[in-house]
Amino acid sequence: MLLAMVCVVSACGDDTPVPADSSQVTIASGDIRGKEHLENTFAWFGIPYAAPPVGELRWRAPKLPAPWEGTFDAVEYGSLCFQPPNGLSGKIAPRTERMMGSEDCLTLNVYAPKSALNADEPLPVMFWIHGGANLTGSSQTEEGAYLASTQNVIVVSANYRLGLLGWFRHAALRATAENKADASGNFGALDLIAALEWVQSNISSFGGDPSRVTVFGESAGGRNTWVLVQSPLAKGLFHGAIVESGTLRLSDAVKSEEYDKTALDYPLYKNNSGELVAKLVKDASSLEIIDTAKKLRQVSVDDLYVAAQEPGSEGDVGTISRPRVFLDDYVLIDSPLELFKDPSRYNSVPIITGTNRDELKMFMMFDESWADRRLGFLPEAKDKERYNNAGAYDADYWRIASVDLPTEIITRHGGAPVYNYRFDYDDLIEWPVELPTLMGAAHGLDMLFVFGTNDKFPANWIMGDKKERVQLSDTMMNYWGQFAHTGDPGRGSDERAPQWRSWSDEGEHLILFDTTSDGGVRMIEDRLTIDRLKQRLLADDLLDHKEKCDMYRKTFLIGYSANFAFDMDEYVQFAGAPCPLTYSLDKWTL
């Protein structure tokens, strides 16, 4: 899969781990050595920031790691967190027949310019949160050395629990919880908060400034960055946030355990925790609740994921295929759009947030309703105009729900400055498959530019002019670096780029990232609203009535970004005729 090829480019680096005495520092857990790394940096890999969440610590808030004796050689990545086999985690990992990784995975990595250890002034810290739908991915996916070196920052990347080990609620677990954190269900989010607490306590040993921490993440990492902005538990742990293709969608805590099977959105909830526990603990209904919790913590992780699969659907893990954070009244106390109306109720820090122009087109190329298979395996759009048209609805709603709307609310109610962007780079190969159409400015493509890895194999194999893409990457890294240093992207760290202005109600309010041959980096005015998007769908001559119903449902109800724009009364009479109340989700599964 092309996306998997692109996403692992940063796993390439020096292969022989040799500790460097000159990198030795002392942290709360003990002495630690890293290694000499790329671009004149030191790197420390696999540093434990929490105790292994295994046995009795499964489905509990993270605990402090145990100190070690002697010197810890942090020269190899820690294990991936347990996840289904995939190409998005950086490198091949130990795996069972169905899964790979380990429950013992709460480690982080630090990249620093060599000069940072003896610098007169501490450097800003950029804390990276990987994506992967909160189901896959790892801290080793993105190479932090280029960003650290070119922007003179410390880069930290952390693993966090994934899937149903990271987001899971059940009455038995709540009844045996020792505190509100253990009862939350948002264990992956609590891991990230623990990692940020580790940064506050230890990053100065690496030359980092704990008073200048920027959290940034892409996709699920962007969503988790939004969670940190919202959570009272993260107050004071960071001072800026960059949300790349992140969403604000949450799960209802009650629905996660007992949902209404007659509801229109029932296909989204294939397994609630009650059903899952019934499969795993055969006599759960007759057991004391404490015994149920004990048995759950004894079940093998393989068995957990097998129980979550639908019969006959190998690899389908129901609701855990897209785990979402719960509104638990602990990690999150209210819906984001309500929180953003009062800067005192969330972490009001400067924010960069944006999306890619063609977020979800790359998923469409594997959908037979949109693409054929030339020679039996090469995807080809059936109708380019209809393909591009359909992809635009998802991407535009994603931007409205996750960028424009929260930005407007934050700004209107006196929050810290917000800087918006759209990533438009689509200079991709057209043979043997036409990637500018099939993928375009695809979900995740921006990471190759933010981390400076777009000129490395295999990413450079699918991309166009090297000089232009490297120039665009340098510009984006400079903006990100300047933001980490000052809280304002300005004209970038080299002060040569256009002035990136914060959101305003009038005039140009969004910066567009593209190569010079396609107009270059520039501020534009491009305002989207839910009403305008729905009107566009109503007037769409490329879709018949059934297709408009499908698109309305797909975009506003079961879409990746949010479902608050779905209106049942509007839907059932959309475009002047009834839309169906029952449907198959299969063709829309992303």
UniProtKB/TrEMBL annotation:
Protein's UniProt keywords contain Hydrolase: yes
Carboxylesterase type B domain residues: 22-366, 413-516
SUPFAM superfamilies: alpha/beta-Hydrolases
Keywords (A to Z) from UniProt: Hydrolase
Broad EC category: hydrolase
EC number(s) on file: 3.1.1.-
Record InterPro entries: AB_hydrolase_fold, CarbesteraseB, Carboxylesterase_B_AS, Carboxylesterase_B_CS, Type-B_Carboxylest/Lipase
Pfam families in the cross-refs: COesterase (PF00135)
A GO molecular-function descriptor: hydrolase activity
PANTHER family: CARBOXYLESTERASE
Family: Belongs to the type-B carboxylesterase/lipase family.
Descriptive protein name: Carboxylic ester hydrolase
Organism from which the protein derives: marine gamma proteobacterium HTCC2143
